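Handout, page 2. Input:
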Amino acid sequence: MEQTHTEEQILELTSSAGGEYEREAVPESRWKGWKSFLGMYAGEHAAGTEFVIGPLFLTTGVSAFDLIIGLLLGNFLAVLSWRFLTAEIAVKYRWTLYYQLEKICGKRLVTGYNLANGVLFCFLAGSMITISATAVGIPFNMEMPRLTDTMPNGITWIVIVIAIGLVISIIAARGYEMVSKAANWMSPVIVLAFLACGIVALGQLGVSNFSDFWNVWGEGGEPFPGQVKYTFWHVMLWSWFANAAMHIGMSDLSVFRYAKKASVGWTSAAGMYVGHYMAWIAAALIYAVYLRSPEVESILANGQAPSVAPGPLAYNTIGIFGIIAVILAGWTTANPTIYRAGLAFQAVMPKASTFKVTLLAGGIATFAGLFPAIAMKLLDFVALYGFILAPFGAIIVFEHFFADRCGVRKFYAEKTGTRFNIAVFLAWIISFAVFYFISLQFNVFLSFVTLPTWVCCGVLFLVFSRYFQKKVVVS
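Output:
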């Protein structure tokens, strides 16, 4: 989208005053090439949370084929979603998710979405602060949170979490430029740490060939107490939709609006394969080493699940470098997550500066980080988080690709002054209620119904929009 020189000057001035083009298209002078996104995606997805997710896969009794091939395909589907949905729409309009939804949904409806989105982002960032705290606490002999812990376990834990949250919040509040720079600085160190963890763990496990590597998981086994048994479909669909809110949920419109062209969306592969694929497997390997210890055998004999605190796991594998890696990994993931949360809150409070609302988001994330339950139940939280938010992305996708051929007016709320687009609300609430009921009533894994919910929401949006828009025109 071209901008005149005068418009560019105005937007540049807004940015220099602390704005992030929250209600404007990003001008061409601020578009960025693939290098700016490569480091950010590699850093964000080679994160502290990977030190938890990798071990959690082992607790589900997953087999080698289900894990290795399931992750391979699931992450590929995620990359395709970023490239051909998120990035494609982002470079077309160059708006934040929240501003684009406002044009479709109306300000009153999108306010509720923004609040929910911002709070969920804060909880996600809080889990990353929790993970970094498990590394910072090692020199202080801090008691680590257990898999079943929900409340802070001491004053040392509280002080460390608050200190980490403060640093992360300030970096995020400095805006996209600072977030991108921080990720580029830290991501090579984090990636190297995950690789080192995997290599060291392979030696500790006595792996000398691919057959030995495969046998680390073998045919799988029974899940740990309180865990669900994962199959190939669980792994593939969970890994595809682990970031559902970001790609099919369109949250990363706020990031890719800075991209020079849609092909920059392929940089998400750095996050999925250097980050998720390699990092999850490396983290699973260091946990496999831990599971062979006498301590774990005693815990399992008592019918309990062993801890998955990432700080000690990384430290036991590669020493001080592991502590540093977990701290940095938490930072690079929490930074863009708090940045996104700040944009969500800024859309609700447009008169407040992005700096202030991002600090607010950081404060909420820090508070959430005090409670380890979110990090310890990360697989469940991520699945629920994507299930709630992804259907709103279907509204944008289906309008962009199908509105014209279905006779639906684009950006209906903006063009008519509607503050609450009933078609959007009905599409989301019906699809959410139906498939969440199916998940609960029939004990269906939530990631199994994420895609049907997303498609259902998009189709219902077009159907209801066509009906209500015609009704308004006739009247």
